[in-house]
Amino acid sequence: MDMNDFRLDGKVALITGAVYGIGFAIAEAYAAAGAKIVFNCLDEKSLQMGLDNYHAKGIDAKGYIADVTNEEQMQALVKQIEEEVGTIDILVNNAGIIKRIPMLEMSAEDFRKVVDIDLNGPFICAKAVLPGMIKKGHGKIINICSMMSELGRETVSAYAAAKGGLKMLTKNICSEYGEYNIQCNGIGPGYIATPQTAPLRERQPDGSRHPFDQFIVAKTPAGRWGTAEDLQGPALFLASDASNFVNGQILYVDGGILAYIGKQP
Ligand code: NAP
Ligand code: GCO
After folding, report:
1. How much is the pLDDT for 264?
2. Is residue 169 assigned to a domain?
3. What confidence tier does 263 reach under pLDDT thresholds 50, 70, 90?
4. Whose CA is nearest to atom 3 of ligand 2?
5. Which domain holds residue 128?
6. Would 41 disulfide with which of 46, 88, 249, 261, CB 3.0-4.6 Å?
7. Which member of 30, 159, 177, 191 is catalytic?
């Protein structure tokens, strides 16, 4: 076992939407392991925020404005990265949104928007990077799935449908491109304290913890919300040569919540 197998020296990693949150934490870990970091975002404001965040951590990241749902933009972005940085060795499909709306109140447009970003986006981005990976003879694609790739809950129908689909897209990319030494795996974070879940952790008017916050902590054997940093080790493993025979798997990083039926009331 060579511990250098966990290094990413000289590798080019594109982490979509990695301005803050989970994507940013994964990029930090990859930079520490030697990777060149590239991220995309939706507008100038996010681009500057991202560059400032990376600069504050001493990371020389390159950022570009491109929408993961726009195939033309992502194809052009990948070509620009290949010219300016190098062929992409690692893609993390991190960009994603959630809309918490009961199905009967959710418009088809809202449903489509969530699926477009959370499922079509990863398809578009994987399709853009695969040719370069095939040519190079190796590649790593890591899809940020969710516990909702396995479970449903009220108000997240679009998100669960998209993340369930992302689990199967992960298995299909594995099946179709494994022969080119390309590994495609997923990470399924549990409940992680980021801006995306901030509404579920808001203090109540009386200062008490949000009922959902209390529910999740009780349902999680680890007895806490996850942090974006909890995902760094698993993400590094799946991006490194240490996982070259791991393909089509979803690695749940959830504090044990998926394994646990919950305490008797
Ligand atoms: P977040 O804080 O909301 O960050 C998501 C990032 O994606 C934002 O920077 C967002 O840009 C960007 N983005 C959204 N749509 C985009 C598009 N069309 N093109 C490019 N970038 C886009 O989310 P997070 O909590 O870090 O989650 C990151 C990923 O992990 C998501 O896929 C999420 O579903 C998944 N996940 C999160 C949790 C959790 O508990 N937090 C658990 C499981 C899975 P803006 O800043 O412009 O909105
Ligand atoms: C929700 C949460 C979850 C988490 C995550 C769990 O509203 O239930 O946002 O969906 O974001 O996906 O793995």
Report:
1. 85
2. yes
3. confident
4. 191
5. 8-190+226-257
6. 46
7. 159
| 11-64 pLDDT tens trace | 999 999 999 999 999 999 999 999 999 999 999 999 999 999 999 999 999 999
Residue 159 catalytic?
yes
Q: Is residue 68 lining ligand 1, measured as CB closer than 6 Å?
A: yes
- 251, 166: one domain: yes
Rounded-to-10 torsion of CA 82, 22, 258, 121? -40
For residues 221 and 126, state if they share a domain: no
Spell out the residues 6+ positions from residue 264 whose beta carbon is closer than 8 angstroms to its own.
none
Domains identified in the chain, total number:
2
Domain co-membership, 55 together with 185: yes
For β-strands 36-41 and 250-253, DSSP reports them as: unpaired
117 and 32 in one domain?
A: yes
Rounded distance from Cα 8 to ligand 2 centre (Å): 29
Sheet holding 182-189, edge to edge: 62-65, 36-41, 12-16, 90-93, 139-144, 182-189, 250-253
The answer to whether position 42 is within a domain reads yes
pTM value is: 0.98
Same domain? 53 vs 144: yes
